[in-house]
Amino acid sequence: MPKLPKNLLIKLENRKENNSFRQLPNPNNRIDFSSNDYLGFAINETIYSDTFKLILKNGASQNGATGSRLLSGNYLMYTELEEYLAEFYACESTLVFNSGYDANLGFFSAVPQRGDVIFYDEYIHASIRDGIQLSNAKNYKFKHNDLEDLIKAIERCRNGNVNQAEPAEVYIVTESVFSMDGDSPDLEALVNYSRKNNYNLVIDEAHALGVFGLNGEGLVQQKNLQKDIFARIVTFGKALGCHGAAILGSEKLKDYLVNFSRSFIYTTGLPPHSIATIKAAFSYLISQEGKEARLKLEDNIVFFNKKIQDLKMNDFFIPSSSAIQCCLIPGNTKVKKVAAKIQEKGFNVRPILSPTVPEGEERLRLCLHSYNSKEELGLVLQLLSSYL
Ligand SMILES: Cc1ncc(COP(=O)(O)O)c(C=O)c1O
Questions:
Q1: How many domains does the chain fold into?
Q2: For residue 165, what pLDDT is reported?
Q3: Burial class (CB within 10 angstroms; exposed 0-12, middle 13-18, buried 19+) of 146
């Protein structure tokens, strides 16, 4: 086997020295406080069997899409799913991507143009950062969930541009539930500000889908703000328990993405099985059983937050009403040690290390699920409090 170049070996060694070396974990049977399967849909037997019924009903018993959707890979179930999603999400149009990573990469690399400016929350997901890196637009970050800082950043940009043309378009991007913090921005204030100034607001709803909204549509629809959002990104690999993603917006935005979004164009479409699973998962989400799962999750989130108060652990936790709850334990070595101790007791909790989060903000990230029992929620917090 040819050897890995020396400069790459050095980078790997550095990771080991910083205690941030990543390795694929072995499968385990610990109690799940780690997966994004907030509602248990990934292991739901009804969704599993409904998927096969849908495939048979649609005469789509083929293993793969056979090509890009612009060539041989588009089929009826795809377009039917996109029509269904447009109604569910109360928007003009939707376009399904192979993953949330692809959707963000495809959106940000294609939509903001040279001369435009993107303002992004400093804690934005890596897929959005990577998309922005591929864009010809200028980009600036603003402090996490800080509208004042965003306004200042935009003013700074405008003042620095006195001799140049005004930016043609301004894009503001944030998440409705932050993946590594579990908290949310003031969406109403962001929408008001963007609408007043004619800016394009883009919201990644990856961790809000299935958790917020009357039918689990997300936080944007829970707050009835959908009409004022330029684009929403929803992903199906979290609470929906399957795979894929969609960009929600106008008809013209869809046309544009189909023509210019490279992560949409230059890749094989999803197989019929994936599309059928997404459709079956949405049908389950709006069913009585789906509603019960969402209520259980909601109840668990309230219970968990109450326990944090009871155990006087508020100072360690980032306030969150979502399924993602984070306990700050600064230092890679320390947070790994606490995680290992709790794992030994049978709980699957994961440490989030720097550089994934800023140095000094390392944390234990606990994902809550509809299927976690109250006893498990109480026990994991008691254990954690004894190690802090
Ligand atoms: C906020 C956010 N956006 C996008 C993604 C990417 O989604 P996917 O896992 O479908 O590629 C993630 C996944 O971690 C995420 O947390």
A1: 2
A2: 65
A3: middle
Whether 202 maps to a domain, the answer reads: yes
Do 315 and 328 lie in one domain? The reply is yes
Please tell me the residue having the least CA distance from ligand 1 atom 8.
100
Q: Give the distance (Å) from ligand 1 centre to CA of residue 206.
A: 6
Give nearest CA residue, ligand 1 atom 4: 100
The residue whose C-alpha atom lies closest to atom 13 belonging to ligand 1 is: 100
Query: Which of helix, strand or coil describes residue 376?
Result: helix
- Answer yes or no: do 146 and 248 share one domain: yes
Here the CATH number for the domain that contains residue 127 is 3.40.640.10
| Tokens found for residue 276 | 């059928």
203 Cα–ligand 1 center, Å: 12
- Name the pLDDT band for 15 (thresholds 50, 70, 90): very high
pLDDT, one tens digit per residue, over 228-253 is 999 999 999 999 999 999 999 999 99
- Give residue for tokens 């908290």: 183
Question: How many residues are there in the chain?
Answer: 388
Would you say residue 350 lies in a domain? yes
Q: Which residues are CB-contacts of 144 (< 8 A; sequence separation ≥ 6)?
A: 121, 122, 123, 178, 181
Residue nearest to atom 7 of ligand 1 (CA): 100
- Is residue 205 left, alpha or beta, with left meaning phi > 0 and alpha meaning psi from -120 to 50? alpha
Atom of ligand 1 at shortest distance to CA of 36? 14
Q: How many helices (H) and strands (E) does the chain have?
A: 14, 12
Report the alpha-carbon distance of residue 283 to residue 299 in Å, rounded.
22
Query: Is 263 in the same domain as 168?
Result: yes
Distance 235 CA to ligand 1 centre (A): 7
Pocket of ligand 1 (CB under 6 A): 99-101, 104, 125, 127, 175, 179, 204, 206-207, 235, 237, 245
Q: What is the mean pLDDT of residues 107-130?
A: 97
Span from the CA of 233 to the centroid of ligand 1 (angstroms): 9
**Confidence band for 163, pLDDT divided at 50, 70 and 90:** low
Domain co-membership, 238 together with 97:
yes
Domain end call among 262, 285, 308: 285
pTM tops 0.85: yes
130 with 258, same domain: the answer is yes
Ligand 1, atom 6: nearest CA belongs to which residue?
100
For the segment 87-97, the average pLDDT, to the nearest whole number, is 98
- Could you tell me which residues are beta bridge partners of residue 92? none
